[in-house]
Amino acid sequence: MNNTVYVDAKMMDDQRRDRLYDGQLFVYSPKEAALQFTGFACEMICDGFNRSDPTLAQFDMPVEEFVKIFAPMKPAFIHHAKTKTLIQEMLLDFGCDMDNTYLDVPRLRAVTSDAYLTSGVGYAHHLHRDTWYSAPMCQINWWLPIFPMTSESSMAFHPVYWNQPVANGSADFNYYEWNSTSRATAAQHIKCDTRPQPKPLEPIALDPQIRLVTEPGGAILFSAAQMHSTVPNTSGRTRFSIDFRTVHLGDLWERKAAPNVDSRPVGTSLRDFMRGSDLTRLSDDIIGMYDNAPVKEGVLIYAPEQTVTALP
To answer: What is the pLDDT of residues 258-277, one digit of tens each?
Structure first.
């Protein structure tokens, strides 16, 4: 396949999704709505760590204190009344059809430098596809840095695996069990992370790889089927970032998506998504097309304050 990185591409969202489903990458310079989004996150992080440059906070406190500050910050950001509005404004700025574009809640991430914290709330992701974690094959990932970043604190993309299957543990991953047993315990994992996660089961090559660097408020878009990993952060600063996901209603109905070469998880994350225009959930008809899990108790939609469970 051709590996293309589109920079500030001026194309319609339908065409952009076609390229993303073909394994291409998009990077955008900061736009006003995205800057509002990262600016809001920046203010929350600075207030939480009580300093103007929280990217250096890790060097002034034990890791347990860092976790104590950042762990409650993550759900506070995710479920803040303002974050969904900021995503909606950003998607409009990127030309998305808000009646057909569905979004999930944003994640706030921290990847610390020099292996200070690599598990739990600071988990450094191994090489993986999001589709191993029950993401739909038509999911688009949106990723934004909150503070200046470098190649040494970026993500790596591994396009050689776009059409190449990798033996992995996704067949043992159940999204609803993950929601009920693993997501809420992230802050407990400080020295190591023992939560069951789908990983490669064969030797893999980290190179060749593509690293993309953008300014705060810039955006990187990629398919959930794209193989990617966290670069071991050696920059001397904690990397804070936001990511969220979207799916398109028409693509779901038409099963228009990236190819599935090796993803076999149980369950689907589609119940997490809300329509861009009014935040209503996807219909049961759509979810039924993609849900391969047996009916049993489990957390279908994860939220710290409230969970939705299946019928026993």
So the answer is: 999 999 999 999 999 999 99
The answer to whether domain 5-309 has CATH 3.40.30 is no
d(CA 109, CA 123): 9
How many other CB atoms sit within 10 Å of the CB of residue 270? 25
Number of alpha helices (DSSP H) and beta strands (DSSP E) in the chain? 7, 13
Q: Which two tokens stand for residue 256?
A: 């228009």
Cis amide linkage into residue 208, ω under 30° from 0 = yes
219 φ, ψ to 5°?
-135, 140
How far apart CA 37 and CA 140 sit, in angstroms, is: 18
Place of tokens 């069990």: 177
Q: Position 233: which residue type?
A: N
b/e per residue 236-268 (b: at least 16 CB within 10 A): ebbbbbbbbbbbbbebbeeeebbeeebbebbbb
Q: Radius of gyration over alpha carbons of the chain, in Å?
A: 18
Q: Residue 293: name the closest of 171, 182, 140 by CA.
A: 171
Quick one: pLDDT at residue 189?
36
pLDDT digits (tens, 9 = 90+) for 290-310: 999 875 556 777 665 543 344
Residue given tokens 């997501």 in the structure block = 183
pTM of the model: 0.91
